[in-house]
Amino acid sequence: MGMTDRTDETLVEAALGGSDDAYQILLERYQNLVWQLLNRLVPQLEDREELAQDVFIKVYFNLSSFRFESKFSTWLYTVTYRTALSHLRKAKIEFEELTEAAEPAEFDRTQDDGLTQALDAAIRSLPLGDRTVISLYHQQGCAIDEIAVIVDKPVGTIKNQLFRARNKLKQKLEITLGEVM
Question: What is the pTM of this model?
Answer without folding.
Answer: 0.72
